[in-house]
Specification:
The protein is of the alpha/beta class. The protein is built from seven helices and eight strands; from the N terminus they run ββαβββαβαβααβαα. The two termini are about 15 Å apart.
Length: about 180
């Protein structure tokens, strides 16, 4: 995207497939793993924590999106062993933003990447002055992400629908962002 030209940003307000239900039962976790295994290409992954409300960096929601399988929102409190998802992902590349923030809490629930692209690190290598997810999505994709739920108490239950929509949108754009960043590097 040309940064020398004024651009009208397109607000990204709803996930293309709608807001998925949160996986809270083992059988639904297995269904998610099967769908993710059938998907193709890299996997966008994110985790929501409650670090401003709880001690530690525990994941309270894990979001996964893969072409052909859609977006999955998983409650790692209800389903503490997410290793079946890691097996389903296999050797596929993981795409995270600010991976150093999420990798420790993902490892705690059994998710460890074999290949990884960190869009935040890519933005730093590309020399961007701002490397937050919202700023990079604006810069590369011309989309405006709503970021008003980034610092909420993700340990609260039930999670409100606007928070779930926000969480689903965070992984909606990761593959496209990775493609744009990688093309520049």
């Amino acid at each position: 995207m040309d940064t020398d030209v004024a651009v009208d940003l397109v607000p990204l307000t709803h996930p293309r497939d709608g807001v998925p239900d949160v996986v809270v039962e083992e059988r639904d976790l297995m269904r998610a793993a099967e769908a993710i295994a059938r998907g193709t290409g890299p996997v966008g992954i994110d985790a929501e924590r409650a670090s401003g409300y709880r001690y530690g960096q525990k994941a309270y929601l894990v979001q996964i999106r893969r072409e052909g399988s859609g977006t999955w929102l998983i409650d790692p409190i209800a389903c503490p062993d997410l290793s079946p998802l890691g097996e389903a992902i296999g050797d596929a590349e993981w795409i995270l933003h600010a991976a150093t923030q999420d990798l420790p809490c993902l490892a705690e629930v059994g998710l460890r990447p074999r290949a990884l692209f960190d869009t935040e690190l890519g933005g730093r290598l590309a020399g961007l002055p701002r490397v937050g997810l919202g700023a990079m999505v604006e810069h590369y994709l011309g989309l405006q992400l709503a970021k008003e739920h980034s610092a909420v108490d993700w340990s609260a239950r039930p999670l409100p629908e606007p928070w779930l929509r926000y969480a689903a949108l965070d992984v909606e754009v990761l593959v496209d962002l990775r493609d744009a960043v990688a093309a520049e590097l």
